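Example S7 (structure tokens).
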């Protein structure tokens, strides 16, 4: 199945720049020339009582820089993270569900006009419409609805100005991030600590919560 691509939705834009990311955090390579593949990771906290969501950190990283970081992880950390996802996430099921053709009944009662909702982007001719919110409505590991998560991260795979829909993008809730962090070796945690210090310079009370580029 060919991946569907849609224009990069706002949730994967840089909040700081109020625009799509345009360079790799690490090598500063231009990302929007249309041929460079990159990942966008953003972490949010939300405060129900104030109906507020804040971005804790955000970055885009090209796939070659990302690969270097993943390769810097210890074998133990990589194996444990892979096992964790194998155990908790059924990616084929996820893909089948997300890409399932929608029956007309799914849209019964909706406006019959072509959707002009910004979340809906017509994919290639002949394919059903997709709504990226379907990819991002629950934690990929625990199934917790995003609205019920105090903290979560989103991860998306982009090429140029487009987001590629595969098993990504995903939401990973705070609990699952904690699980993953707990699986990392001390060596890997040191690597990630170095990454955070170098690129984010966050206050210490925030640093301990952040895992950095663990998954892709
Ligand atoms: Zn790079």
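Recovered sequence:
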């Amino acid at each position: 199945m060919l991946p569907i691509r849609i224009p990069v939705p706002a949730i994967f834009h840089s909040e700081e720049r109020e625009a799509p990311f345009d360079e790799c955090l690490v090598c500063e390579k231009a990302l929007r020339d249309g041929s460079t593949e990159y990942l966008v990771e953003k972490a949010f906290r939300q405060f129900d009582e104030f109906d507020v969501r804040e971005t804790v950190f955000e970055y885009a990283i090209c796939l070659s820089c990302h690969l270097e970081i993943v390769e810097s992880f210890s074998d133990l950390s990589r194996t444990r993270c892979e096992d964790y996802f194998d155990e908790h996430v059924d990616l084929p099921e996820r893909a089948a569900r997300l890409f399932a053709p929608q029956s007309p009944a799914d849209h019964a009662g909706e406006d019959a006009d072509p959707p002009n909702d910004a979340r809906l982007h017509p994919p290639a001719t002949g394919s059903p419409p997709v709504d990226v919110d379907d990819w991002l409505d629950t934690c990929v590991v625990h199934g917790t609805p995003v609205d019920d998560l105090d903290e979560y991260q989103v991860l998306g795979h982009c090429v140029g100005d487009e987001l590629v829909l595969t098993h990504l993008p995903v939401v990973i809730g705070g609990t699952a991030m904690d699980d993953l962090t707990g699986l990392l070796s001390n060596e890997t945690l040191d690597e990630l600590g170095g990454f955070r210090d170098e690129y984010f310079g966050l206050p210490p009370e925030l640093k301990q919560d952040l895992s950095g580029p663990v998954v892709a």
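Notes on this example. The longest helix spans residues 75-88.
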